[in-house]
Specification:
Layout: E1 7-17, E2 20-30, E3 37-47, E4 59-64, E5 72-81, H1 86-139
Parallel strand pairs: 3-5
Antiparallel strand pairs: 1-2, 1-4, 2-3, 4-5
């Protein structure tokens, strides 16, 4: 007798459990009445053991298997494509944004200090000229 096990392909979204990954499968179909493309996502817990170890972000094929726990009835069959972990990418982008934001703040502070110095020198120059004018008027 030949076994017919279902095989699905999806992306690993979590690998925080020991020997278990959560795989999200997207199914796109056209709505029967309106024709709009509808995306449905389903999540499966899959056994992730030694010969094939999948990490978050990987595109994997999962195959139906015997029940391994209350919710785990699939196992990782193969890794189709290694993926970059989205959280690491987001962290890198955040670090870059923070660095550019800090550079902008430093530039603003320098500009404000320069303007303050100009105002002070201008005020000091006006005060000197006002004192000079007052001294000249007293002399006359």
């Amino acid at each position: 007798m030949r076994e017919h096990r279902r095989i699905m392909q999806g992306r690993v979204i979590s690998d925080k459990m020991a020997k278990t990954v959560i795989v999200e499968i997207e199914e796109r179909s056209s709505h029967p009445l309106y024709g709009k493309v509808v995306t449905q996502t389903r999540r499966f817990k899959a056994h992730n053991d030694e010969p094939v170890i999948a990490k978050a972000g990987d595109l994997v094929k999962i195959i139906e298997s015997r029940p391994m726990s209350h919710a785990k009835r699939w196992r990782v069959h193969e890794i189709v494509q290694r993926g970059e972990i989205v959280e690491q990418i987001v962290e890198k982008e955040l670090e870059e944004l923070r660095a550019t934001e800090e550079a902008v703040r430093a530039a603003r502070r320098a500009e404000e200090e320069r303007r303050a110095a100009e105002r002070l020198s201008k005020l000091a120059g006006e005060d000197e000229t006002a004192e000079d004018d007052a001294a000249e008027s007293e002399v006359q």
